[in-house]
Amino acid sequence: MAAEVDAKALCQVAVRVAREAADLARTVRDQSVTDGAVNTKSTETDVVTAGDRAVERLVRERLAQLRPGESVLGEEEGGDGALEGLRWVVDPIDGTVNYLYGFPWYSVSLAAQLDGCSVAGAVVEPVSGRVWSAAAGHGAFLDGRRLRVSNADRLDLSLIGTGFAYSVARRTAQAQVLGRLLGQVRDIRRAGVASLDLCAVGAGWLDGMYEVGLNRWDWAAGALIVAEAGAELRLPQPGSTDGLGDGMIVCAAPGIAGELTDALLRADAGRV
């Protein structure tokens, strides 16, 4: 698949556009919040700011200039749902609640997918300026430094990331799963940004992560980065019968991937 496109060239575009978008996200943040330009989507806790919309518009405009004629799927403006061909997938601000509060842990995530599979991607942190990137078959990098997952080989000594849904009912169920898992791991981290959780596994900052209910724009770039860094990765699988449900993503260092999957199955995570 990767041989059908120039993945490295697509990665360069992703990095260039995501960097520009990150600059915009950072500069408009104070105005968008103090002006009250904040709305909600699925629930009252699921927020969207003027910054989200402005950043996605910028990404679409720049891609139209640099890659004319290619479709774009974005969190705020939607897009073509077909998986065939080359399509860009953008989360203009992943971690909008953090962005709203001024918590400096959010990202711009941009990936190129071919027939629904990520072949290039970039995740840029507006506050720190860090750039995570990957091209299929060419490795994953943080600011030019090659990434590699941790050497973890015991789940009870592993640091695991996760996230929670906006729905109260689903969050309650996720908390029950977490309670069953907590005694089997070193500790849990919940930062509120799925793309950066995936990148953190790729860097060895986390040994693994799992989450249910993510959308394609949440994981399209980060999943490629963590896979290219050597993690074992399970993406959401429509119609899955493996016991983890069809909406769960799981990734981990190879030494604990099987243990983490088994622990999630015992915790009944697939029912969340």
TrEMBL record:
User: Transferase: present as a keyword of the record?
Assistant: no
Q: Which reaction does it catalyse?
A: a myo-inositol phosphate + H2O = myo-inositol + phosphate
Q: Which residues bind Mg(2+) 1 per the record?
A: E75, D91, D94, D218
Keywords from UniProt, A to Z, are: Hydrolase, Magnesium, Metal-binding
What EC identifiers does the entry list? 3.1.3.25
Molecular-function annotations in GO: inositol monophosphate 1-phosphatase activity; metal ion binding
The residues that the entry says bind Mg(2+) 2 are I93
Q: Which InterPro entries match?
A: IMPase (IPR033942), Inositol_monoP_metal-BS (IPR020583), Inositol_monophosphatase-like (IPR000760), Inositol_monophosphatase_CS (IPR020550)
User: So which cofactors does this thing need?
Assistant: Mg(2+)
Family designation: Belongs to the inositol monophosphatase superfamily.
Q: What is this protein called?
A: Inositol-1-monophosphatase
Q: What is the native source organism of this protein?
A: Saccharopolyspora spinosa
